[in-house]
Every structure is written in C-alpha cells, then in structure tokens.
Design a protein that fits this description.
The chain is mostly helical. It is built from 13 helices and two strands. It starts with a strand and ends with a strand.
C-alpha cells in the first residue's frame, strides 16, 4: 500500500468526488453484468458468487502479506452487523421482483439521501447543515420525477428495506473508518457469504464457463465499489454522500438511448437537473470542515490506498 498526501480541503473534495464517481460508475457496471447471464440462475446464487469472489481475491492478494491482520478487528459485532446489511439490501430487491414494479421499488430506495442524514444524526451525532438537507430532498424529488412511480404497498415495503439497509451501511462504514480498509471489506463479504452458503443447495444451478466468468466479474467490480465507498468514508462525513450516489440515475438517463431505451422526457430532465444541482451542493460541502468532520483534523491527511 502507498500513502497519498492530501494537504487542502479542495484536494479532499476532488478526491472524494473521484472516489464516489468511481463508486457510481462501477455500481452501474455491477448491475449491468448480471444481464449477460444465461436465464435461470437465482439472484441469490449471483450474490453468493459475487461475495465468494470478493473473499477469494482478498485471500489470494492480501492474506500472504498481512496474515491474520486481514480479519483482526476490535469491533467484531459492528463489522458483522454492518456486513449483514449488504445481505438485507439485495434480498429486499429479490423478494420484490414478483410483487412490485422495479421502478416503484427504486423510487422508494431513493429516500437514501434523507435517511443517511437521519442515521448520521442519531448514530454518530453528525448533524448536517440545512444546505445538505435541501440537497437530499431535491435528490429524492429528482428521483421521483425520473422514475415516476405508481402507488404500490409492496414497493414501499421492499424499497424501504433496501433504503434503510444501504443508508445504515454507509453511516456505519463511516463509524468504522479507524479500522483497516481491508478488514472492513473482508467482513462486508463474509457476513453475506456465510449465511447464503446455507441456502445454496436449494437454489444452485450448474455454471457454464462463460457465466462463471461473468459472476466473477460482478465480484471483482463489486469489491472495487465497496473499496471506493470505504475510502470516501475515511475522508468526509457520510452526510454528503446521498446526492452523489444519485448521479447513477443521471448516468442511466444518458446511457438509455444508447442501449435501445427511451430518451428522457421533460419531467425526467427536470429531475436530472435537481440531482445535478444537489450533487454540486454536496461536493461543495466536502470543503467545509464543519460538515466534513466533527473532530479536529491535521493539516496533512494521509489516505491509505490499495
């Protein structure tokens, strides 16, 4: 690992933007890759393969060098509880597939920007200033204009399950910023992989070589996604993240015509403008020490990178 010096709040904001930009881009890739699979696989098997690949890569790449330090933690309960949230989130989505329209579920999911602020305040005492609350509300409204949900009780239940689990995962990742990144990533995967292993005999389908490669690709991309989030949480308060995560929706709007989908209508463009404006507010807030952290920081911050 190397050390990257960051001497100014401006450079901190640029670095956070880069990490979350990587997160958003690869998050989209990780969601697209399963569409390349042969139909018939359980999504639980895809998730199991994702985190199995994640663990295998870490063991091969880091265990020979770091040994037991890869899983040595002072906060085992928090690590495992946080990791289980990454099981609740996909499970909520999978359970919704036959019960609600995907757009309706995702519309509820985009309560995430507001929920992150709520969890950050209650769990960490990190109370955001009003511009971030405005940005979070604008992001959620923008998502509704893009997705245009219909009324669905099932969508509300499963979408809220996704939103609550993901929002709390982000906030707890910030709480674990003093733990080594490799330890956080290891337990994020183990807490999903072990419970799903018990379910695999019931859902397992033999893999073709091509599908095994695609599922392994999901695991590799997903590992980098969580790494980028973990590193961003070391640098800045989780309260700024919600509006930046929603840039994924803008990326989807841009790619839709290229992938044979519909072009954005007027309401979607208004929603996109709201999300873009909220993201600018969130990025600017990363340069504010009062919103970036509630504890004193040194003039020189060293960011550990893989």
């Amino acid at each position: 690992m190397t050390k990257l010096p960051v001497r100014s709040e401006t450079r901190r904001a640029v670095l956070v933007a880069g990490l979350l930009g990587l997160f958003v881009l690869l998050w989209s890739v990780a969601e697209w890759l399963p569409t390349l699979l042969t139909p018939g696989y359980s999504l639980y098997q895809v998730v199991w393969m994702r985190y199995g690949t994640h663990i295998l890569v870490m063991l091969l790449a880091l265990a020979p060098r770091h040994g037991r330090a890869l899983f040595r933690t002072q906060r085992l309960g928090l690590q495992l509880g946080r990791g289980l949230l990454m099981l609740v989130m996909p499970a909520s989505y999978i359970l919704s597939l036959d019960r609600a329209r995907g757009g309706d579920v995702m519309a509820v999911f985009w309560l995430v920007p507001i929920l992150i602020l709520v969890f950050a305040a209650f769990v960490q005492g990190d109370r955001a200033r009003w511009p971030l609350w405005g940005a979070a509300a604008a992001t959620t409204l923008g998502a509704q204009l893009i997705l245009r949900p219909t009324t669905s009780g099932a969508a509300a239940i499963f979408g809220l399950g996704m939103a609550l689990s993901f929002s709390l995962y982000v906030v707890l990742t910030r709480s674990l910023r003093d733990e080594p990144t490799m330890v956080n990533l290891f337990y994020s995967a183990v807490a999903v992989f072990v419970p799903l292993t018990l379910a695999m005999p019931a859902v397992w389908q033999p893999l073709t070589a091509r599908d095994a490669i695609v599922m392994a690709g999901v695991g590799l991309v997903g590992l980098v996604v969580l790494w980028a989030l973990d590193k961003a949480c070391e640098l800045v308060s989780a309260t700024v993240f919600g509006p930046l995560f929603a840039l994924q929706l803008l990326l989807a709007l841009l790619l839709s015509p290229l992938l044979g989908g519909p072009q954005a209508g007027r309401l979607a463009l208004v929603g996109a403008a709201l999300i873009a404006g909220a993201a600018i507010v969130a990025l600017r807030s990363t340069a504010d020490k009062q919103t970036a952290s509630r504890e004193p920081r040194e003039a020189r911050l060293e960011v550990e990178t893989l």
